[in-house]
Write a structure and sequence with these properties.
Length: 464
């Protein structure tokens, strides 16, 4: 058996059979008859080799074996080195790509040699390493973002990486790494959960690539500015880890809309006209925005509970994560908009146009969607429990893993839709058209069928 560390190899099993041989040789050298001078000299040389050289070999081998044993803690972190090197890739991003940064790799207790690569355009890097440890830590320092030099080191920790892993190195992953290394016994999952709660980032948003794609949850600029004031990234991370020791501490870094976000809005007349406006995280509780022009507006994570958006034009608008509980959106144009992860509990959306809208994991519990157009909408994972979908058009919609228990779907159209693994327990499908819909794995316990067109075109009136 052979243990590899870097490029050095040694036997981890001492060949013990020559120990009794050494004893026999030494005993034999004292019991033999007198020899000639030459023979004695040769015997002395042989005895010297037996007495001094072989024990030395034994001592060195034992020390090497002890070295292997002393690294047993880190061996749990590292897989055995393979005979072939492997390539991994990733990106360094701190609110923008960091180009020209030096990226190196290690485990929690030791490095992977002298492997250092530089990030290219877009902050992308590709590295070839001699092995993939069970826990991989990637560190990036230097480089620049759109000209200015980047000061400090960013890190990321990855559990059981593979050649298909896409490593994201960012301020958030740096905080996760710091928390993990400070409380390693708690594990990486615990570090991620604590950082997520500390930064107030919802569970459906990835802490890596998700914060690059959807930047409204974390402001890298304000985070790095605070780090600079605190004496640098390392010092700031240490202070945040101490703050996270209190499980109730929350310290979000949200992106706030600039002061001039309403500079191009016409607020002097009704309705309001604000196309392409940035109202990220705005507080508009119970606001009257009826018939407003908010085409392509950014209203992500805003508070709009009880607001009136009746007949408003929100085509292409970003309403990601909004609080729209009990909001009035009847007749609103929400085509191609994003309402993913928004809360629309009890909302009035009668005859709203949601064609091809992104409604993944949106909460529509008890909402009124009578006559709403949801053609081609992405409703995967959405909660439509108890919602009223009478006469709604769900043709071609994706309802994978959606919750539709006790929803009213009379006589809605779901033809050609994807309803895989959805929960329709107790739903009312009277007059519903399911022609061509994929109901694989869908729960249909207690469903009311009356003049219902099933996926195969057959009529089902078992509940009439």
């Amino acid at each position: 058996m052979e243990q590899r560390v870097g490029f050095l190899a040694w036997p981890t099993r001492i060949d013990t059979p020559f120990l009794p041989k050494l004893k026999t040789h030494l005993q034999g050298s004292t019991s033999r008859s007198p020899l000639s001078s030459a023979a004695k000299l040769g015997g002395r040389r042989s005895a010297f080799r037996r007495v001094f050289i072989w024990p030395t070999v034994l001592v060195v081998s034992a020390l090497m074996a002890a070295s292997c044993a002393s690294s047993s803690q880190s061996s749990a972190e590292f897989l055995p080195l393979s005979s072939q090197w492997v390539t991994i890739s990733g990106i360094v991003n701190a609110g923008g790509p960091v180009v020209g940064a030096n990226v190196s790799f290690s485990g929690p207790s030791r490095g992977l040699g002298k492997v250092v690569v530089q990030t290219m355009e877009g902050g992308v890097f590709n590295a070839t390493v001699p092995s993939l440890p069970n826990i991989l830590i990637a560190s990036a320092n230097g480089g620049g973002m759109n000209g200015p030099s980047f000061v400090g080191t960013l890190r990321a920790v990855i559990s059981h990486p593979t050649t298909k892993s896409q490593i994201v190195i960012s301020p958030v992953t740096t905080l996760i790494t710091s928390e993990y290394l400070a409380h390693r016994s708690a594990g990486l999952a615990s570090a991620k959960a604590r950082v997520r709660a500390f930064l107030d980032i919802p569970p459906e948003v990835s802490l890596t690539i998700g914060l690059i794609d959807v930047q409204s949850y974390f402001d890298n600029a304000s985070f790095l500015a605070a780090a600079s004031k605190a004496g640098g990234i390392a010092a700031y991370m240490a202070s945040l880890v101490l703050s996270m020791a209190n499980p109730n501490t929350v310290h979000p870094y949200p992106i706030h809309a600039p002061n001039s976000v309403l500079s191009e809005c016409d607020l002097t007349s009704f309705p309001v006209t604000c196309p392409d406006v940035n109202l990220n995280m705005a507080k508009l509780v119970s606001a009257d925005l009826s018939a407003s022009n908010l085409v392509s507006a950014n209203l992500s994570r805003s508070k709009l509970s009880g607001a009136s958006l009746t007949f408003a034009n929100l085509s292409g608008a970003n309403l990601f994560g909004d609080d729209l509980t009990r909001a009035r959106l009847s007749g609103a144009n929400l085509t191609f908009s994003s309402l993913a992860s928004a809360n629309l509990t009890g909302a009035d959306m009668v005859f709203a146009n949601l064609t091809y809208a992104d409604l993944a994991y949106t909460n529509f519990a008890t909402a009124n969607l009578t006559g709403a157009n949801l053609t081609g909408a992405a409703l995967d994972g959405a909660n439509l429990t108890g919602a009223n979908l009478t006469d709604a058009n769900l043709s071609g919609a994706n309802l994978t893993d959606a919750k539709l228990s006790h929803a009213k779907l009379t006589p809605s159209k779901i033809g050609g839709g994807n309803v895989i693994r959805a929960n329709l327990t107790g739903a009312n499908l009277t007059g519903a058209n399911l022609l061509g819909a994929d109901l694989s794995g869908t729960k249909l316990v207690g469903v009311d069928y009356c003049h219902t067109v099933m996926p195969d075109g057959a009529a089902n009136s078992s509940s009439c």
